[in-house]
Specification:
Elements lengths: L10 E14 L2 H7 L2 H21 L3 E6 L2 E6 L8 H22 L8 E13 L9 E3 L1 H11 L6 E4 H7 L3 E11 L3 E11 L12 H16 L1
Parallel strand pairs: 4-6
Antiparallel strand pairs: 1-3, 1-4, 2-3, 4-5, 6-8, 7-8
């Protein structure tokens, strides 16, 4: 809750926020087959790794519910580059999962799926006891649908998010997929940073960050 102070406005409208949901594929079955203490320990390892990646990339962790992890870019500090950084963070979360699977026998069958959407939200707090920073709006609902429509080991983004990130990442078009109460929406699977924008390990290179710098300058000018 890095952006909230009780002396500031309790709720703020943001026009450009990128929301990411992640959960563990088949978690109910995994929970049935694991000792509860072991399960919680492994979840703690996973979410600790996620927290480090999210914080490093300037993304705001919103909350965890069971095996679900929710975060968002572009809050509490508004910025034009949040779609790119949120998608990049998604790739890093996938890498975290792969590393933990290699290191932990108990996690070897775990896989996460990720969904991302960009749009407007209201962010802030409600109530008076045990205050927590949260976000609301159709953008949140759509991001949740993106996650539900994703597959194990994949990052599923909306057509809206794709338009913001297509110059930075290689993506495969999945087509128009049905979404409850929304009809069919364009969806894309994110594969990697574009080859010309990454090093031999797939990490962003100087060209990637130069393009990001240009976006930041344009955003400031606007």
């Amino acid at each position: 809750m890095s952006g909230f102070s009780e002396t500031t406005n309790r709720r703020t409208k943001y026009d450009l926020v990128t929301v990411m949901f992640s959960d563990i594929q088949g978690f109910t079955r995994i929970a049935e087959d694991m000792n509860l203490e072991d399960l919680v320990d492994e979840l703690d390892k996973l979410f600790f790794a996620f927290d480090l990646a999210v914080e490093k990339n300037g993304i705001e962790k919103i909350k965890t519910i069971g095996d679900a992890y929710m975060c968002a870019g572009g809050i509490p500090k508004k910025n034009k580059t949040n779609p790119i950084m949120t998608v990049f963070t998604g790739l890093e979360l996938m890498a975290c999962m792969r590393k933990l699977k290699e290191d932990s026998e108990k996690m070897k069958f775990w896989d996460i799926r990720i969904g991302i959407h960009t749009g407007s939200v209201v962010a802030g707090v409600v109530g008076h006891n045990k205050l927590s920073y949260d976000i609301w709006g159709e953008t949140v609902n759509t991001a949740c649908h993106m996650e539900s429509a994703s597959e194990a080991g994949k990052i599923n983004i909306s057509g809206t998010t794709y338009e913001f990130v297509k110059d930075f990442f290689d993506c495969d078009y999945r087509g128009k997929m049905p979404v409850k109460h929304k009809g069919k929406l364009d969806m894309y699977c994110v594969n990697s940073v574009k080859p010309e924008l990454c090093d031999s390990n797939g990490n962003p290179n100087h060209k990637f960050w130069e393009k990001m710098k240009t976006l930041r300058i344009e955003g400031t000018a606007n």
